[in-house]
Amino acid sequence: MKLAPLGFGLGLRKEHYQAILDTSPAVDWFEVLSENYLVPGGKPLYFLDAINERYPMVMHGVSLSIGNSDPLNFDYLQQLKTLSERINAHWISDHLCWSGLDGVNTHDLLPLPYTDEAVMHVATRIKQVQEFLERPLLIENVSSYISYTQSTMTEWEFLSAVAEEADCLLLLDINNIYVSSVNHEFDPLEYLKAVPKERIQQHHLAGHSDYGDYIIDTHDHDIVDSVWNLYAESVKHFGPVSAMIERDDNIPDLAVLLQEYEQMKQVSASVLGDASSVNTEEAENV
Amino acid sequence: MSELLNLQRSMMQWLLTEKGDIETKVVGTKKVSSEIRLGIYANAYRYRLIDALSDNYPSVHTLLGDEDFYNDGIKYIAAYPSQHFSIRYFGSQLESFLSQQHQETVVLAEMARFEWVLRNSFDAADKASLGLKALQEIAPESWAELGFTLHPSVARLDLKWNVPQLWAAIENETGQIPFEQAEYPIPWLVWRKKLKTYYRSLDVDEAWALDAVIKGHHFSEICAGVCEWIDEAYAPERVAGFISQWLEDDLIVELVI
Fold this sequence. Notes:
The complex is a heterodimer of chains A (286) and B (257).
Chain A: E1 8-11, H1 17-23, E2 29-33, H2 43-52, E3 57-60, H3 74-86, E4 92-95, E5 98-101, E6 104-110, H4 116-133, E7 137-140, E8 147-148, H5 155-166, E9 169-173, H6 174-184, H7 188-194, E10 200-206, E11 209-210, E12 215-216, H8 225-238, E13 242-246, H9 254-272, H10 275-285
Parallel strand pairs in A: 1-2, 1-13, 2-3, 3-4, 4-7, 7-9, 9-10, 10-13
Antiparallel strand pairs in A: 5-6, 11-12
Chain B: H1 3-17, E1 26-27, H2 34-56, H3 58-64, H4 66-79, H5 94-101, H6 106-122, H7 133-136, E2 147-150, E3 155-161, H8 163-171, E4 181-193, E5 196-201, H9 204-214, H10 219-226, H11 235-248, E6 252-256
Antiparallel strand pairs in B: 2-6, 3-4, 4-5
Helix pairs in contact in B: 2-3, 2-4, 3-4, 3-6, 5-6, 9-10, 10-11
């Protein structure tokens, strides 16, 4: 069921377009933010195509809103599908969340209540989306800052139930697990060990903003040691999984980000030994 | 109503108005109250949208200053909540909003119009340009009925204020320049050549000719129209000059015979 791992990736950001074309960095693949390229033309699509000639790509979206009570937006889905064909995306991912209601979009990744009703609602929609896109849809755990009184299960039980019911793959964001573990006072290792191993297709790593009593998932800082340690635990538990770094704000030069990229590879290699290099070779054969 | 829908209604009401019963549906921790937790989402909602406005309207932001831009942004969010799946289009009504909000300072709405046109030109659809050679292949007898298709990035606008000059001063950080109103609206052209967006002012007859092309008029109709400003004998040469320039600038993507 799982797809061949791609190795180690970076999020494609406009600040790095020219540096990527000039230097062809040794990055196995890029994750693109889908909505940035759902435009008619111009610079974004020009650079996307040019970089796609050299690197495999996966798509990561923020607008699917799989948990919304509004009907699915098939205009958006058609645009996603067209883009996925254009760049031959290995897979498409979005978040286990909802974003709006009655046609109003908050552009936020709002957490769902962890209930049986929400599991069935989301799973039904994931199946519809996967069928429409004709490409695997990975569902990602979000960072959250509230808990609902409605919830009847833990976040990891909810994520697992959705994945099983929808029969889909998961994008496990290591930083989001860490952020939520602080905000909701749970053990992140318990989370890691509870989710279905055979469905973990990708990891996200990112930085965040620590406000003492709570953490906000801002993607504008370097990855902290606690998240690196949790990543090492995830590699120990899940084995080789495609992993990438998300940086969305306060974006450093590509050379600086590549140092973090090397750190990601080293953390994985320190756990897996030679297995991580096998992982990369497999990616090249995909 | 399902429990999920009920919860989502409460949360939306909170985000849009900071009212309702959502506080009864969330729990806090020992360290962080439910009020603070909900506040994280309310703040994120507003700041994310105001950031998106600032990205698309950097010069409107500069002209207003941080405080007024934030205050107007809050009012804009309430008046025009986002209805598109992409945040890229959230600011589409800002010109209309500013023209109501700042009726005495028209330059703000005009700057919003200019920046939105630049933004749309930036990621307008791609079309291969024709180049000057294409004109040479047109038989002389076909010229009268010749029509033109413009590149999707081409936009025309008339501005009463020195908005493009203000925009350039802000963009290039060359220092503040005063607002100036022209006696008559100045015609401007915005377009993209390859990956770069350009703008320039137009003489009144060129602006009329370009508007006529946009309306689908033929070469002979355009020549007749520009006679309002120049002698009939020079009209074909004048219009042919416009067309050559437009071809050189990649404005024309198709000659329609």
